[in-house]
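Page 37, continued from 36.
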């Protein structure tokens, strides 16, 4: 019986193993920053929207209906 051989690419080394967790932290940071921007944008719109809609005579008290 022959022993099974394992072929390891030159590119797959310790750097390839360490890139997984580092990439996960980058993805988590980008997703967290995107979520912060969405919440911040919604907050700004909810605060700023009633003033122009009242000026334009919108029939709803919360502003435009979109």
């Amino acid at each position: 019986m022959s022993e099974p051989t394992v072929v390891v690419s030159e590119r797959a080394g310790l750097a390839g193993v360490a890139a997984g967790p580092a990439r996960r932290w980058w993805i988590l940071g980008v997703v967290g920053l995107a979520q912060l921007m969405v919440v911040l944008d919604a907050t700004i719109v909810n605060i700023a929207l009633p003033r122009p809609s009242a000026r334009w005579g919108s029939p709803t008290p919360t502003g435009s209906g979109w």
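The first helix runs from residue 14 to 48. Flag for discussion at group meeting. The mean pLDDT is 76.
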